[in-house]
Amino acid sequence: MIKEIDAQQLAERMEESDDILVLDIRSDMEVAQGCLPQAQHLPMHLIPLKIQDPPKDKEVILYCRSGARSYHACSYLAQQGYDNAVNLRGGIIAWARSGLELVSAPAKAG
């Protein structure tokens, strides 16, 4: 079972805690259109190569455009022994529809 969080819950977590890592797994072209504050960019195709990078002591929130790719990425991470991967339900679309802030450029992960 993949853990999920909605946009409003994530926004609250980002305000009150620094014990989470937010990963944008979209393509470079998608990221250029905006991303979540505090997000780091790790394109989905690089996750298997950087599997050792996400911290196991923090919750890792993954998101994509609609939540489908990040759901599969969470599933992959769970298979690799990560029990702290959480999918942003509805992706950046749900975030934007909730009226939450988007910023221009994320930090590069790793």
Strand and helix layout:
Layout: E1 3-5, H1 7-16, E2 20-24, H2 28-31, E3 39-41, E4 59-63, H3 68-79, E5 85-88, H4 91-97, E6 107-108
Parallel strand pairs: 1-5, 2-3, 2-4, 3-6, 4-5
Model description:
This protein is α/β, with parallel strands linked by helices and 110 residues long. 30% of the residues lie in helices and 20% in strands. A six-stranded parallel β-sheet has the order 1-5-4-2-3-6. Strand 4 (59-63), helix 3 (68-79) and strand 5 form a beta-alpha-beta unit. The model has no long low-confidence stretch (mean pLDDT 91).
Mean model confidence by pLDDT: 91
**Low-confidence blocks of residues:** none
Tell me the number of helical segments per DSSP (H or I, 4 or more residues long).
Answer: 4
Strand sequence of the main sheet, in spatial order?
1-5-4-2-3-6
Shape: globular
Write the CATH homologous superfamily. Answer: Rhodanese-like domain
N-to-C order of helices and strands: EHEHEEHEHE
Named at the architecture level, the CATH assignment is: 3-Layer(aba) Sandwich
Number of domains: 1
Compute the CA-based radius of gyration: 12 Å
Q: What portion of the residues fall into strands of 2 or more residues?
A: 15-25%
Portion in helices: 25-40%
**Major sheet description:** 6 strands, parallel
What is the β-strand count? Answer: 6
Write down the CATH topology: Oxidized Rhodanese, domain 1
Look at the structure and give the CATH class.
Answer: Alpha Beta
